[in-house]
Amino acid sequence: MKGNYGDKPFRGIYPALLTPISEDGKIKKEGLKKLVSWEMERGADGFYIGGATGECYSMDTEAREELAQTAINEMNGRGKSIVHIGAYSIRTGIRLAQHAESVGADAVSATPPPVYHYNIDEITEYYRILSEAVKIPMIVYINTMFTEKNVVSAVTRILELPNVIGAKFTRNNYYEMFQLSHLKGGKLNLLNGPDETLLCGLIMGADGGIGSTYNIMPDIYKKIYIAYLQSNIEEAQRWQFWADAVIGILLKFGQIQSMKYLFCRKGIDIGKAEKPGAELSQAEGKALMKELKIIGYFHEYPELE
After folding, report:
1. What DSSP assignment string belongs to 228-259?
2. Residue 6's pLDDT is what?
3. Could you tell me which of 39, 86, 163, 294 has the fewest CB atoms within 10 Å of its CB?
4. Does this UniProt record's set of keywords contain Nucleotide-binding (predicted)?
5. How far apart are CA 112 and CA 109, in angstroms?
């Protein structure tokens, strides 16, 4: 039933799943299955499927549906799935939400309407329509597209919608997260967005995280999460700094391109970044591998060297 989801059902580490896709826009199912299995074995608690890291806005609707269905089927009850349904058309968003529910997703999520700036009344209506299209819960995506001076006050109405149980927080003002953590009687299910500051998010009230670079180091982020739960902040900080060093290298070469390069070269065929994303050159690939080796990435992930 709507509104009855228990106490914060989404906790832990959720990679924002990369999309294995061919150059003609077809989902690479075998690559997707291998990717999901590898990440689950490495500590992922579930997945955020079909978001920006998944290159959703470069994909057609049918491919997004196939991605969600294949990933959820491969998970086979292991962990929880959140399917991103944000789209240029709200009709497409409704279709994606209803499809996600039909294939067994645990929740849906959506960024604010892309491209245009809408006022908070319009954005609230957008989330009302999407969240009422299904019986599974909605995770709101709070990012920099919310431009109101008092973001917490602005989004409170959205977070009070009956089917909204939580939010992915992808902003850098952690006082805002602190304020959000007290909404709904402290029961709002908050997930940190910025990979580089997962520990900050946990300290300020997050119940876990959703992140792009979780794809290539899920258990490193799991170590941060577990160390925090055990009140071992020094250990959590050590692994956060380690992850941030990897992030710095990925950003230098292109985050999605670099992660796809690492998997493809070791037999997990997830294709190239969607256009206009560029493919790494041979020289860039070698430089990426060299820098990752220097900081010890392959000591933790020898199977990707």
Report:
1. HHTT-HHHHHHHHHHHHHHHHHHHHH-HHHHH
2. 53
3. 294
4. no
5. 10
Fold of 12-234: TIM Barrel (3.20.20)
Are the C-beta atoms of 109 and 100 separated by less than 8 Å?
A: no
Rounded-to-integer distance, Cα 29 and Cα 21, Å? 8
Residues 166 and 75: their CA atoms lie apart, in Å, by: 22
Provide the 8-state DSSP code for 4.
-
Reported confidence tier of residue 4, pLDDT bands at 50, 70, 90? very low
Contact 109, 210 (CB under 8 A): no
Distance CA 263, CA 76 (A): 22
> 53 labelled as ligand-binding?
yes
DSSP state of 183: G
Which residue's entry shows tokens 């560029």?
A: 278
Q: Which residue, chain included where needed, has tokens 């995280």?
A: 209
pLDDT, tens digit, for every residue of 49-67? 999 988 888 899 999 999 9
Flag whether 136 is marked binding: no
Exposed / middle / buried, residue 221 (Cβ in 10 Å: 0-12, 13-18, 19+) = buried
Positions annotated as catalytic residues are: 141, 168
User: How many whole angstroms separate alpha carbon 60 and alpha carbon 131?
Assistant: 22
Residue with tokens 């580089």: 196
